[in-house]
Design goal:
The structure holds two protein chains of two kinds. Chain A is about 25% helix and about 20% strand. Chain A has helices at about 25-30, 50-55, 80-95, 100-105, 135-140, 160-165, 220-225, 240-245; strands spanning about 1-10, 35-45, 60-70, 75-80, 110, 115-120, 145-150, 175, 195, 210-215, 230-235. The chains are: A alpha/beta, B alpha/beta.
Chain lengths: ~250, ~120
C-alpha cells in the first residue's frame, strides 16, 4: 500500500465555465502538481474523459460527471470505468433540455484521444436535467459509482444552500469540505469528507487530499474513509463527525 | 369574510390540494422562494409559501417556518415521497398551474381585499 494524492473534482474545456483546460493542459497541471489521481467531472457530461485518460502519463484519471439535478443540486458522480460514466451520461442527456449559447455561457469543446478539438457539444451542459437527486443517486449506485456532494454551502448548486439541509437517508458517498469549514447540520456525521478543487483553471488543480490504499479505486477509497483494512486518508479528519469533535 | 384560509385560496384560484394541514390556519401573507436555505431564514408563521421545489425537504422547511401551507407553482406536482411525508406531518401541500409571479399577484390581491374588509 502507498499514499495516492488526489483531486476528485476537475473540469475540462467541455464545461462552458472552464478555461484553458484541454486534456493535455489538465494532465500536465496535475502531474506537475504531484497529483496521482484526478477525477474528470464536467457538467452533465463525461465526453472528454477518454481524451484526458489518453493524455495521461502517470496520473490516474477517474471518469465522472457533475450532474445538475432537477432541484438544481450538483452531484459529482464518479466511476471506476468509463462505461459507467457514459451510461449515466446517456441517461442524463435524455433528460437535459436546451441548447448551449456560446456567446452567453462559453464554448463546450470536445476532444478526441489524440488531443485535438473535434467540435462543440450542442447540449446545454450548464443547465439542470429533469432527473431528481434521488434518481441520480440510485442510478449511480446501480452502476457501481460513487456520489459526492460538491460545494455544499453554495446557493448555486450546493445541496445545503439549495435544499436547506441534507435530506435524511440520502445515499451520498461523500461530501466536499466547504471553505468555511464543515456545516454543523446533522445528519452529516456519517458522510465522509473530500477536499477537492472543483478546478476550472489549471492552477487550481492540486494534491488536495490523499488516500493510503492498495490501488486506485472507489472501493479502496471507501475503505480509506472508514479507516478499514489499513487504509486511511489525509487529512485524517475526513469523517465529518471527527471534524466537529463530536 | 374575516379570515382567508387555504380552502378559500384553493377555491378562488383553482388550486389542487395534495395534502391538508392538521389544523386550518389563517393565511396572513406569503413568501416565494426556491432556495430552501433562504426560505428557512425568511418565511414566517401564517404565510403561504410559493415554490417550484418539489423535493421532500419542503415539508421540513414548512414545519420549521410554520407556514400555513406550501403551493407548488408552474404546473409542477410534489414527488410521491413529498406527499407521503407531508401527510405524516400534517403539512398542507397544494399546486397551481400558474407561475409563481402570477399566483403571488392573485394572492396578494385577495389579501388586500380581505384587509380592506377588515379595516375599511
Amino acid at each position: 500500500m502507498r499514499w495516492f494524492t488526489a483531486d476528485l473534482h476537475v473540469h475540462t474545456d467541455l464545461s462552458p465555465c472552464a478555461k484553458s483546460m484541454s486534456p493535455d493542459q489538465v494532465v500536465r497541471a496535475a502531474e506537475s502538481a504531484g497529483v496521482d489521481v484526478i477525477a474528470i467531472c464536467d457538467h452533465n457530461s463525461a465526453a472528454n474523459v477518454a481524451a484526458v485518460q489518453a493524455a495521461a502519463a502517470q496520473v490516474v484519471v477517474l471518469p465522472g460527471l457533475e450532474v445538475n439535478t432537477r432541484e438544481e443540486v450538483h452531484l459529482v458522480c464518479l466511476f471506476d470505468h468509463l462505461e459507467g460514466a457514459l451510461a449515466l451520461q446517456e441517461m442524463v442527456y435524455r433528460e437535459l433540455p436546451g441548447e448551449n449559447d456560446e456567446g452567453i455561457f462559453g464554448p463546450q469543446w470536445l476532444y478526441n484521444e489524440a488531443g485535438d478539438r473535434i467540435g462543440l457539444e450542442r447540449k446545454f451542459l450548464a443547465g439542470s436535467c429533469r432527473l431528481s437527486m434521488q434518481a441520480v443517486i440510485a442510478l449511480v449506485n446501480r452502476l457501481g459509482g460513487l456520489v459526492i456532494a460538491p460545494h455544499p454551502m453554495r446557493t448555486y448548486g450546493g445541496i445545503i444552500g439549495v435544499l436547506g439541509f441534507i435530506p435524511k437517508d440520502l445515499q451520498l458517498g461523500a461530501i466536499e469540505a466547504p471553505p468555511s469549514g464543515w456545516p454543523h447540520h446533522s445528519p452529516l456525521g456519517e458522510i465522509p469528507g473530500v477536499i477537492a478543487s472543483d478546478a476550472h483553471r489549471t492552477e487550481e488543480i492540486g494534491p488536495h487530499m490523499a488516500f493510503y490504499m492498495e490501488r486506485v479505486g472507489l472501493e479502496e477509497m471507501k475503505y480509506a474513509w472508514r479507516g478499514l483494512e489499513g487504509r486511511r486518508t489525509h487529512p485524517k479528519f475526513l469523517m465529518v463527525k471527527e471534524a466537529l469533535g463530536r | 369574510m374575516r379570515q382567508l384560509t387555504l380552502s378559500d385560496l384553493a377555491q378562488k384560484l383553482q388550486l389542487q390540494f395534495h395534502t391538508h394541514s392538521r389544523e386550518a390556519k389563517e393565511v396572513t401573507g406569503g413568501y416565494a422562494g426556491d432556495l430552501l436555505s433562504d426560505v428557512m431564514a425568511n418565511a414566517r408563521d401564517g404565510q403561504v409559501w410559493l415554490t417550484i421545489q418539489v423535493h421532500e425537504n419542503i415539508v421540513a422547511v414548512a414545519l420549521l417556518t410554520n407556514v400555513a401551507g406550501v403551493i407548488i407553482t408552474g404546473g409542477r406536482r410534489p414527488l410521491p415521497e413529498t406527499v407521503e411525508r407531508a401527510r405524516e406531518e400534517g403539512v398542507a401541500i397544494l399546486s397551481s398551474d400558474l407561475s409563481t409571479f402570477t399566483l403571488g399577484g392573485e394572492i396578494y390581491r385577495l389579501l388586500e381585499e380581505r384587509n380592506a374588509l377588515v379595516h375599511g
